[in-house]
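> forwarded from #structure-qc
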């Protein structure tokens, strides 16, 4: 029954898709950290459904209410409670097929765990809706990280079978330029190569028109993470990021840097040679290991990719069971769903990574990285 992530900076999430609200409690932020509500709203806007054939027709404001912990645009140092009201629910869509388990969704596992007491309306607590709370809490941490010289960004590396330009894993300056390109985009469709945007959108709309769905790959970069962050085993940088990344519904795979590609390389190809900069900093000539050695950041960019499965709720008829009548059945769902989760999940993955990095940074520097964002690394 654990709804909290983080040891030193924690986020607790709550809510169901068709309940009154979803929300979060962010605990561990120092006092006096600026909270720019327009930045928070811009992050929420990237996740918001638009009713444009690319996302769920369940369109709502997704306005964040800061209930505590923020006064006059600054944190007070106490827990920040925030909530987002559910304003556009249609529970009747679910009532008609309530006893039929949706393949790929959490209907069966929720029943197995909560014995019929789960809120099944709209997927309840398992709905992607709850990621609105993750973005709201994560974006407060993301803004604090940016002030401390750490930026996190995500793009749609692949949607269906169409690929975007990958992040420049081995070239921090080119990667920083790519991050700038993504920062300049306000619309929630994060691609680097403008030429792939329409083909991706066409693939999503085509799957939706057939009552089907498509998946893809998100690629996230963390720039400016200081060397020395992370713990050798259980709280390694990879472990913390993967823990959060897999908390995002529909994420089914992750790889860091060269990832599964390492399997086909020789050591002489896989190793990242160390070099000294003119300023006396240790860098690596390549970045196959994605800025992490032994679970600890080495100062190079951290780059990881997550596989996002096709939306499970599809309109094609599917084989399932009626778990009340205890017999095989056919399912034809009603309701409103994303034909593809990937575009909306990009900002979710950025905010999830921000929570992991915020926790790791607080473990190392305490709250200094928040209160002294330009000086906290002096003793590194
Ligand atoms: C932003 C976002 C939006 C989502 N939208 C939908 C949706 O409209 N319909 C659906 O069936 N699943 C949607 N999902 C995915 C389900 O919530 C998820 O597949 C389900 O909870 C089962 O979890 P699992 O896929 O991680 O096993 C969405 C996920 C995210 C992150
Ligand atoms: C509401 C959102 O997405 C929802 C995520 C979701 C699911 O099963 O994950 C199912 C749908 O919910 P409903 O049936 O209530 O319309 C989506 O619309 C959102 O992300 O804000």
């Amino acid at each position: 029954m654990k709804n909290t992530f983080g040891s030193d900076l924690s986020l607790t999430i709550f809510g169901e898709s068709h309940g009154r609200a979803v929300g979060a409690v962010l605990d561990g932020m120092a006092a006096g950290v600026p909270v720019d509500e327009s930045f928070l709203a811009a992050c929420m806007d990237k996740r918001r459904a638009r009713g444009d054939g690319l996302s769920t027709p369940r369109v709502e404001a997704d306005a964040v209410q800061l209930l505590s912990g923020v006064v006059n645009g600054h944190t007070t140092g106490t827990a920040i409670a925030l909530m987002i009201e559910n304003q556009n629910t249609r529970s009747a869509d679910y009532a008609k097929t309530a006893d039929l388990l949706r393949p790929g969704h959490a209907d069966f596992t929720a029943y197995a765990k909560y014995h019929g007491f789960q809120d099944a309306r709209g997927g309840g607590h398992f709905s992607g809706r709850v990621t609105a709370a993750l973005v709201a809490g994560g974006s407060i941490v993301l803004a604090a990280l940016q002030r401390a010289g750490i930026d996190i960004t995500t793009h749609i590396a692949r949607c269906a079978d169409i690929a975007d330009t990958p992040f420049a894993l081995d070239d921090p300056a080119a990667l920083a330029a790519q991050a700038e390109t993504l920062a300049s985009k306000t619309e929630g469709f994060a691609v680097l190569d403008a030429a792939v945007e329409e083909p991706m959108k066409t693939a999503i709309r085509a799957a939706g028109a057939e009552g089907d769905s498509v998946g893809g790959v998100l690629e996230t970069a963390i720039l400016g993470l200081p060397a020395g962050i992370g713990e050798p085993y259980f709280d390694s940088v990879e472990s913390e990021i993967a823990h959060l990344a897999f908390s995002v519904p529909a994420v089914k795979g992750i790889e860091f840097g060269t990832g599964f590609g390492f399997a086909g390389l020789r050591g002489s190809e896989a190793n990242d040679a160390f070099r000294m900069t003119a300023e006396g900093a240790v860098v690596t000539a390549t970045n196959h290991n994605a800025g992490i050695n032994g679970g600890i950041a080495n100062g190079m960019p951290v780059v990881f990719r997550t596989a996002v499965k096709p939306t499970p709720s599809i309109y094609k008829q599917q084989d399932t069971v009626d778990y009340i009548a205890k017999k095989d059945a056919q399912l034809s769902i009603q309701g409103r769903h994303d034909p593809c989760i990937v575009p909306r999940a990009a900002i979710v993955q950025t905010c999830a990574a921000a929570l992991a990095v915020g926790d790791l940074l607080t473990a190392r520097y305490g709250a200094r990285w928040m209160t002294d964002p330009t000086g906290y690394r002096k003793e590194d």
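QC bot note: The first strand starts at residue 4 and ends at 5. The mean pLDDT is 96.
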